[in-house]
Specification:
Layout (H helix, E strand, L loop, with lengths): L5 E5 L6 H15 L2 E8 L12 E2 L8 H16 L7 E5 L2 H11 L4 E6 L5 H5 L2 H8 L3 E6 L2
Helix pairs in contact: 3-5
Length: 145
């Protein structure tokens, strides 16, 4: 069985985020793997930045929504002892940004939540499904209710 070296936890801050966080943490512990975390902003307007789509976590802005997202990401990162340089807040399309980050950072497992959608939502696809089909590595889709 493959041992994972670098695990990427992709969070969306839904009400069930803790389930995904716990699963990723357990996988990292079982594999003695490095754990990183990413949240992709796709539901707020792009902030006015000079550094592209990656949002600097240490810089304060006057965007209240952005600051809330940064605080949530940092709270989870601190609780899991994830170093600041392994925490990413990125603006864009989640499936693309997660896959690109995984390739760039040599991630070998992405942990993402899956809501198991049906009907039209299934036809349109979900983040977990998109990540599964675009990721350069294994993907663990954690089933959520």
């Amino acid at each position: 069985m493959k041992t994972y070296q670098h695990i990427l936890l992709a969070v969306d801050f839904s009400s069930q985020t803790e389930i995904i966080v716990n699963r990723a943490y357990d996988m990292a512990q079982q594999n003695t793997a490095k754990l990183s975390i990413v949240h992709v902003l796709d539901n707020i307007p792009m902030p006015d930045t000079s550094y592209g789509t990656i949002i600097a976590l240490e810089d304060e802005t006057d965007n209240a929504l952005l600051e809330q997202e940064k605080a949530k990401l940092n709270q989870i990162g601190e609780r899991l002892n994830i170093p600041e340089n392994q925490r990413w807040l990125i603006w864009g399309v989640p499936t693309q940004e997660i896959a690109e980050l995984a390739e760039k950072e040599q991630i070998d497992l992405i942990v993402v939540g899956s809501h198991g959608r049906h009907g039209l939502a299934l036809l349109l696809g979900s983040t977990a499904n998109g990540v599964l089909h675009h990721a350069p590595c294994d993907v663990l889709a954690v089933r959520l209710k």
